[in-house]
Amino acid sequence: MSVEEFPCLLPATRGRRARMRTVHVLRQGDVGDLATRIGESGAGFLRDSGFQGRAGELALVPGSNGVAAAVLGVGDRTDPFLFGGLANALPAGPWTMALPAGLTPATAVLGFCLGAYRMPAFGRKTEDAADIARLVVPPGGAAGAEVARAIRLGRDLINTPPNLMGPTELARAARRALEPLGAEVRIVKGRDLAQAYPTIAHVGAGSARAPRVVVAHWRGTQAGDDAPLLSLVGKGVCFDTGGYDIKPASSMLRMKKDMGGAALMLALAQLIMTRDLPLRLEVRLGCVENSVSGEAMRPSDVVTTRSGLTVEIGNTDAEGRLVLCDLLTEACEMSPDLLVDAATLTGAARVALGPDLPALFSTDDSVADTILQAGRACDDPLWRLPLWDGYADWLRSPVADLNNVSAKPMAGAVTAALFLRNFVKTDVRWAHIDTYAWNDNYRSGRPEGGETPALRALYASLLRILNVTDRQQQ
């Protein structure tokens, strides 16, 4: 990947030919050392301006010909979002960074790119690259651009209007992202889909835009037949009306993000492949639309899943677990060393944890602990919720093996995860991510719109769980 894919970045070779200014990044205790960095006059200006060096505090230093430099306080934080406001706050032109110990160039580049992100234009006028601040990529910074590229992919997919991102378009986007990196991508549709993934077909029956399933296979250049197998599964509901159990209008406004689980898994797959990890990878995405029509699924329908279990439809707005269950069954048929699924599955998880904390469920304590530790270490947190067996009976049905919703109006995220567990083999290590996939408002490095929380945590944790090495980080 070239850093030139990002308008906000400049390769170091090009930056040397331009007049560069420096962002001096300071810990709060380093404020007294300002004079050695920006000169006595600049330090005096910042003292008189009340600059404290608090985390996220940015000051522009005047010179004889406009802004001469900038100073960014980071406090004791190490997260990339510290740098998320720079692209919008710095004057146009090339910039470099002077970083303190404990902050890596990759972190700075990642944060800068996340803050520079803009939604796809769709005819809207965009900024010229000459009119924006651009960061000259330091040695070691390109790794941050690779992570930013994966996050940008996820954000772009989620932010695309639903009339332009149906099941077919999502499947094609997956193919465009994965095939150039060496994956074999198959798109399943029609009778083949109905036979292999009956619950996805049932969910998609009400829409004029027929469902698609993406199945991709890849292995790293250093991965042999005995390399660990990672399986990723994503919910790709491109728009969710709720079906006959229709959502109120206010709840439908953001339903273009209901394919956020598929976007997250696709972004993670892209990063794994870009880094050429020594593993085998399978990706399965259920691309579908949940609509209302004479062909749509009904409450009280009974559908037979790929596994043979029958499911009564207690609520047509609980379609995400139906999209996932056949994909999880197929993934387990390959006996993966680790199975991870992601979905914008339940409002209950958001009530419990809010928008920033994806809920984590796992059948393996070691897997869960590793993901949580990685999330804390890279400032990409998750929170574990239990697969509480005491609630399993809440999914009983008098006419089928399972109901797709609980008989009680409590613990909705837990019972959804318990439903999915029925389709995961007991000897497969499994992690389920219930995510929001959206920023409700702008924050540094996190513009309003689609988001891929847990991406960095999952990537860092799978290295440990599968015992594989990212040679680019060595």
TrEMBL record:
GO terms for cellular component: cytoplasm. Keywords: Aminopeptidase, Hydrolase, Manganese, Protease. One of its GO terms (molecular function) is manganese ion binding. Residues 315-322 form the Cytosol aminopeptidase domain. Signal peptide: none annotated. GO terms for biological process: proteolysis. InterPro entries: Leucine_aapep/pepB, Macro_dom-like, Peptidase_M17_C, Peptidase_M17_N_1. The keyword Transcription regulation does not apply. Belongs to the peptidase M17 family. This is Leucyl aminopeptidase family protein. It comes from Gluconacetobacter azotocaptans.
